[in-house]
C-alpha cells in the first residue's frame, strides 16, 4: 500500500470573497496563507501529504494556470502530474480525468481527492491511512468534520451507523445541501451529522466503473479528452476541449457519491478544518495579538482591535477602528467590517460588470519562464518588468501599438534580432518593432531582469509630424498668396486698373 495513495488536488474556483487577494487568473489557492513570504494554500496542501504512504500528486487545474502550479511546486521541491482543464466542468469530470491518468501508471491506484484551498491542522494522514484498506476493498470514503456551529455555507453528511468490519467507518444516511440556519441548528443539536470536507478516497478503477454505471456520457467525453490530450510547454497534459465540454458540469458528490451503494463516512475526530471562504474566516483561524488583531506585512495600529490588517508591499497604518478588514494590494484596497466580509463577492460582481482588470489579475503574473509585472500603464506608454528564470526561454513580442524598448537590468541573456544574435547585459538596450517577436534565453546563472517599455512608434510620429509641417507650410504659403491678392484688390483703381506703386 505504500506510495499507492495518490493525492489528487483540485485547483478550481476563484474564491471571490477573498478579493483583492484572490483574482480570476490567480485565485485563492495560489495566494499566501499568512501574507507575503509564506506558503500558499496550494503549497500547504501539497506538503501536508508529502509523507510516507503517499505517492506523487496529480494536480487538476485550469489550463491557463499550469505555469503558476509548476512554479509553486518547484519552489517547495515537489513534482506532480499536472492536468489542465480547457474549460471548467466542476469536480466530477476533473476527478475522473485524474483517475484515468492515475490508472496509466498503477491499475490499483487509490485517489485521495483534496481541495487545494483549505486549512487543516491535526494528524489527518493517520486517519486517511487507516481507511486505505476499506477504500482498497471497494468502499468510497468521504471524510466528515464534526461541526462546531450551525454553518449554512457547508454541505452536511448524516451518520447511518458504524460498519462492523472497519473501525472508524460509518454508513451514510444522506447528504444535505447547504441548509438554512434553522435546519443547520437542528442538525447540530441532534448530533450525528458532519460537515462535508470535500475530501474523499477511492480506487481509481472503481470511480471509472461507477461513471460507467451512472454517467456513461461523461465517461465517454472525459476518456476522449484524456486520449486526445496534448502537452503544453511545461509538460502539463491539456485535455482536449471539444470532448471535455461534453462532460457533465456537476460535482462528484452529485454524479456518483449520492447515488452509489459503496459510499461510506469517515469522521475526522480531533481535526481542525476550515475552507477559509471569507476574510472573517482568515481572522478566526489566525494567531492573534492581545488586542485580537491579526496583522500580516508592514502594519502599524493604534487603538484598534479585533481586526484583520494585511499589507503586501507598503506600510499600512490603522487608527481607532474595531472589527474591520483591511486588505492592501498594489492595485486595490479593501476596507470592510468583519460583519460584512461575506459581501465582498458583491463588490467582485460590480467589478466584473464594469470590466475592471483588478478582478481578473494581479499586476504580477506567473509565466512558464518566470514572472512578468506591470509597472505602469498611462495609456500613452506601458512599462513591464520581466524576470526570466535560469534556463528560461521566451519570445518578447512587440505590442503592435508602438516600439518596444528593452533594457537589461540585471543578469545576462542572449536575444535574436533581425540583424543577428546579441548579448544582453545590465544596461544594454535594444529596440524592436511592433510586429517583431524576439527570441530570448537566459543562459546565465541567475535570474535575468528585463525592463520592457512600449512607446508610440517614433518613426511613424516623425513621418506624421513631417506631413503636418508640410501641410502647415502649404497653408502658410496659401495664406501669403491670399494676403497678397487681398492687398492687390485693396490697391486697385475704381475702374479695375492697378494704381501706380
UniProtKB/TrEMBL annotation:
It comes from the Bacteria. Residues 297-351 form the MannoseP isomerase/GMP-like beta-helix domain. Residues 481-501 are annotated as: Disordered. Residues 7-289 form the Nucleotidyl transferase domain. InterPro entries: ManC/GMP-like_b-helix, Mannose-6P_isomerase_type2, NTP_transferase_dom, Nucleotide-diphossugar_trans, RmlC_Cupin_sf. Keywords: Isomerase, Nucleotidyltransferase, Transferase. One of its GO terms (molecular function) is mannose-1-phosphate guanylyltransferase (GTP) activity. Gene3D superfamilies: Spore Coat Polysaccharide Biosynthesis Protein SpsA, Chain A. GO terms for biological process: GDP-mannose biosynthetic process. This is Mannose-1-phosphate guanylyltransferase/mannose-6-phosphate isomerase. It comes from Alloyangia pacifica. The lineage of its organism: Bacteria, Pseudomonadati, Pseudomonadota, Alphaproteobacteria, Rhodobacterales.
Amino acid at each position: 500500500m505504500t506510495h499507492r495513495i495518490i493525492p489528487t488536488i483540485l485547483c478550481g474556483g476563484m474564491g471571490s470573497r477573498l478579493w483583492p487577494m484572490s483574482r480570476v487568473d490567480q485565485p485563492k489557492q495560489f495566494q499566501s496563507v499568512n501574507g507575503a513570504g509564506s506558503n500558499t494554500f496550494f503549497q500547504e496542501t501539497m506538503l501536508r501529504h508529502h509523507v510516507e504512504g503517499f505517492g506523487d500528486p496529480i494536480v487538476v487545474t485550469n489550463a491557463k494556470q499550469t505555469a503558476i502550479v509548476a512554479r509553486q511546486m518547484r519552489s517547495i521541491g515537489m513534482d506532480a502530474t499536472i492536468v489542465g482543464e480547457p474549460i471548467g466542468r466542476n469536480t466530477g469530470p476533473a476527478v475522473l480525468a485524474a483517475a484515468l491518468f492515475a490508472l496509466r501508471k498503477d491499475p490499483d491506484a487509490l485517489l485521495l481527492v483534496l481541495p487545494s484551498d483549505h486549512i487543516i491542522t491535526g494528524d489527518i494522514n493517520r486517519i486517511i491511512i487507516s481507511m486505505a484498506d476499506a477504500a482498497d476493498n471497494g468502499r468510497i470514503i468521504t471524510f466528515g468534520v464534526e461541526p462546531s456551529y450551525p454553518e449554512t455555507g457547508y454541505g452536511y453528511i448524516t451518520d447511518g451507523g458504524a460498519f462492523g468490519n472497519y473501525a472508524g467507518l460509518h454508513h451514510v444516511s444522506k447528504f444535505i445541501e447547504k441548509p438554512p440556519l434553522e435546519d443547520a441548528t437542528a442538525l447540530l443539536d441532534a448530533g450525528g451529522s458532519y460537515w462535508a470536507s470535500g475530501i474523499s478516497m477511492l480506487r481509481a478503477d472503481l470511480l471509472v466503473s461507477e461513471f460507467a454505471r451512472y454517467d456513461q456520457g461523461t465517461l465517454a467525453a472525459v476518456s476522449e479528452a484524456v486520449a486526445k490530450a496534448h502537452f503544453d510547454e511545461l509538460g502539463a497534459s491539456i485535455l482536449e476541449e471539444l470532448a471535455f465540454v461534453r462532460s457533465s458540469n456537476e460535482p462528484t458528490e452529485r454524479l456518483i457519491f449520492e447515488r452509489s451503494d459503496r459510499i461510506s463516512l469517515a469522521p475526522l475526530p480531533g481535526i481542525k478544518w476550515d475552507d477559509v471562504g471569507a476574510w472573517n474566516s482568515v481572522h478566526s483561524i489566525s494567531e492573534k495579538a492581545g488586542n485580537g488583531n491579526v496583522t500580516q506585512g508592514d502594519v502599524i495600529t493604534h487603538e484598534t482591535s479585533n481586526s484583520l490588517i494585511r499589507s503586501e508591499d507598503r506600510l499600512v497604518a490603522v487608527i481607532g477602528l474595531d472589527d474591520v478588514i483591511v486588505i492592501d494590494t498594489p492595485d486595490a484596497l479593501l476596507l470592510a467590517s468583519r460583519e460584512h466580509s461575506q459581501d465582498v463577492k458583491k463588490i467582485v460582481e460590480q467589478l466584473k460588470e464594469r470590466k475592471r482588470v483588478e478582478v481578473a489579475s494581479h499586476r504580477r503574473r506567473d509565466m512558464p519562464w518566470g514572472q512578468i509585472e506591470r509597472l505602469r500603464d498611462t495609456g500613452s506608454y506601458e512599462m513591464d518588468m520581466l524576470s526570466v528564470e535560469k534556463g528560461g526561454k521566451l519570445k518578447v513580442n512587440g505590442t503592435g501599438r508602438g516600439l518596444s524598448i528593452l533594457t537589461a537590468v540585471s543578469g545576462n541573456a542572449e536575444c535574436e534580432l533581425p540583424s543577428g544574435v546579441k548579448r544582453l547585459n545590465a544596461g544594454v538596450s535594444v529596440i524592436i518593432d511592433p510586429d517583431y517577436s524576439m527570441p530570448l534565453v537566459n543562459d546565465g546563472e541567475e535570474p535575468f531582469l528585463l525592463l520592457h517599455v512600449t512607446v508610440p512608434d517614433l518613426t511613424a510620429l516623425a513621418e506624421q509630424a513631417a506631413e503636418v509641417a508640410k501641410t502647415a507650410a502649404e497653408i502658410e504659403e496659401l495664406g501669403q498668396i491670399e494676403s497678397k491678392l487681398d492687398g492687390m484688390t485693396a490697391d486697385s483703381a475704381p475702374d479695375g486698373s492697378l494704381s501706380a506703386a
